[in-house]
Amino acid sequence: MKRIFTILLLISISLAFAMPDYYPLTSIAETFSTNWCTSCNEMYAGIDVLHDQLHPGEFISTRLYTESGPLSNPDVQARFDHYGVMSFPVVIFNGKARVDGANDETHNGQ
Q1: How big is the chain by its Cα radius of gyration, in Å?
Q2: What is the Cα–Cα distance from 26 to 50, expressed in whole angstroms?
Q3: Fewer beta carbons within 10 Å, N or C terminal of the chain?
Q4: What pLDDT digit, counting tens, does each position of 11-42 carry?
């Protein structure tokens, strides 16, 4: 019994002082665009800046296109409908924060 108590005490003490420098959190960005959107490329440049600044796996983004002709997909259109995307470009972060249009913040990855 003493051994078990001693082992548990040592484990709890070591866990109390364990402070990793990096706590991974994952953010997801859904970018909505079309084939004819000229300012969407600037928005994608800002998303690429975020990928460069963050650790691998810490930021995941996807590019969703509407009006892509034979490559269109009903699941992609369902995402557009879910968020009510009517103008382009639009970025949705973690399903909550929304950025409409290309502006200086999206170009710089802020």
Answers
A1: 21
A2: 12
A3: N
A4: 777 666 665 565 668 899 999 988 888 888 88
Q: Which domain holds residue 44?
A: 27-108
Residue with token string 């170009």: 107
Q: In whole angstroms, what is the distance from residue 68 CA to residue 71 CA?
A: 5
Domain of 87, CATH number, reads 3.40.30.10
Residue 49: inside a domain: yes
Q: In 3D, which of 98, 86, 105, 103 has the Cα closest to residue 30?
A: 98
Residue 21, domain member (yes or no)? no
Q: CA separation (Å) from 93 to 27, 62, 70?
A: 7, 11, 28
Beta bridge pairs of residue 65? 33
Condensed to tens digits (0 to 9), the pLDDT of residues 62-74 reads 998 887 667 678 8
Q: Round to whole Å and give the CA distance between 110 and 103.
A: 10
Q: Is 54 exposed, middle or buried (0-12, 13-18, 19+ CB in 10 A)?
A: middle
In a domain, 83, yes or no: yes
